[in-house]
Design a protein that fits this description.
It is built from 15 helices and 14 strands. The chain is an alpha/beta fold. The strands form 3 sheets. It has a 7-stranded mixed β-sheet, with helices on both faces. A 5-stranded parallel β-sheet has the order 4-3-2-5-6, with helices on both faces. It has a two-stranded antiparallel ribbon with strand order 1-14. α2 runs antiparallel to α5.
Length: 416
């Protein structure tokens, strides 16, 4: 049932009251409780995990195999110890006498992947801020399953999280939600900018816009079986969540033999199509894939060094490009492999992506890896990791270059 502006306003009033009680609890108590909830989602045999695995496929279009594998990879390191370490690293700064969340935090969820939703709900609660969450149109179930699991474990803390749904075009409902003391939003750059303009000080606005990820490989440093293992890992990064998250690589930039990389990744994506079948694909995306495949075939026929792997019946596409020019990526397991002559050419090719660069999977650079990683971070990437790990960010990952908790916090100092 769609929430009304009056219902949203009433929810914020309720959360102000429950939030006041929440802030009387110790931070350690809240962290331990939320850690237990998170451990429940990590456990494949728990009720919450089973609900997520059963309800996500029909709601999001992902296949059950992809949901199961995606959750296993993403939540592997999300343990209660990691939650404690995150809180300690960000909230235990020397000299800080007072740090807490706002009375209420509104979270406007975006995307179809459950791990970012779980973290978006956890973060303000860790700061002892009551949360009103609006579900994403692409994933209407994760927030509600989390809220139910929290309420089952700790009814008092569960009362500090409410979940609502309404159309993003409902301006009145959106305005009611934006009355919270802190607003967190995830979406396109345009959506985030529009919401930011409607949140006036002293309320806090934290926005996360459009981001993409890539792979950077040097086959000369991946001799023999290492290239096959890297291709297998990169194919998994592409296949998990059907390439629909900000940590899904859209291109592999290759310093050296791009043909070998394209062929190896194509073999692995073909194998994953059976083990982790692709989910539903919107007609517009299917049309975009067909268009980009046809365009690549035309360039190949015209004499360009372009090779298409995968035919119209395949649930994946790999295009070995002739250069590092940025081209559209329709997603849904569509990867461009783009050749480069040197690390200097790499930085020039990625510079236009800098402001939108989330993660980079790096392999094959040996002793140069540290310098290349530093250059990539300087361009704007917020995470560099090994292929196969893009979809498994730690809880402490600085998404968009920001800390996890501090942007949502209020600080106070008492001077001697």
């Amino acid at each position: 049932m769609s929430a009304t502006p009056a219902g949203i306003a009433a929810a914020i009033d309720r959360l102000r009251a429950t939030g006041a009680l929440l802030r009387r609890r110790s931070r350690e108590d809240v962290v331990e409780t939320l850690g237990l909830v998170l451990e429940g989602f990590r456990d494949p045999e728990s009720h919450a995990r089973k609900l997520l695995e059963s309800e996500l496929p029909p709601a999001t279009g992902f296949t059950p195999e992809v949901v199961r594998a995606g959750l296993e990879v993403a939540l592997e390191g999300w343990k209660v110890e990691a939650l404690r370490a995150l809180v300690a690293s960000e909230l235990a700064a020397p000299g800080v006498r007072f740090v807490t969340g706002f009375d209420t935090t509104a979270v406007l969820l975006g995307g179809a992947l459950p791990p970012p939703t779980l973290l978006a709900l956890l973060a303000p609660l860790l700061l002892r801020s009551a949360v009103l969450a609006k579900t994403s149109q692409h994933d209407p179930v994760t927030a509600r399953i989390f809220a139910r699991a929290l309420a089952d474990l700790d009814p008092d803390l569960g009362a500090c999280l409410e979940v609502v749904s309404f159309s993003g075009s409902d301006a009145a409902a959106t305005d009611a939600l934006l009355a919270a003391d802190c607003v967190v939003a995830t979406g396109s750059d345009e959506t985030v900018a529009s919401l930011a303009a409607r949140v006036r000080p002293p309320r806090r606005f934290v926005g996360y816009g459009h981001r993409i990820s890539v792979a950077v490989l040097r086959p000369a440093g991946l001799g023999g079986a290492a290239l096959a293992r890297t291709a297998q890992a990169l194919a998994l990064d592409v296949a998990l969540w059907d390439q629909l998250g900000c940590l899904s690589p859209v291109s592999a930039f290759v310093v050296g033999d791009a043909d070998a990389v394209a062929e190896a990744v194509a073999v692995e994506l073909a194998a994953l199509a059976t083990r982790l079948p692709r989910g539903n694909i919107p007609p517009a995306a299917a049309a975009a894939i067909a268009h980009e495949r046809g365009e690549a075939e035309m360039r190949a026929a015209a004499g360009h060094a372009v090779r298409l792997h995968g035919d119209a019946g395949d649930a994946w596409t790999v295009i070995r490009e002739s250069d590092a020019r940025l081209r559209p990526c329709p997603l849904h397991r569509f990867l461009r492999v783009q050749p480069l002559r040197s690390a200097e050419d790499l930085l020039a090719a990625l510079r236009p992506l800098g402001p939108h660069l989330a993660g980079v999977a790096l392999a094959g650079f040996g002793d140069l890896a540290q310098d290349v990683s530093a250059a990539l971070l300087d361009l704007g990437a917020s995470r560099v990791c090994a292929p196969g790990r893009l979809q498994a960010p730690p809880l402490s990952w600085h998404h968009d270059g920001l800390p996890v908790l501090l942007p949502l916090a209020r600080f106070g100092d008492v001077e001697d």
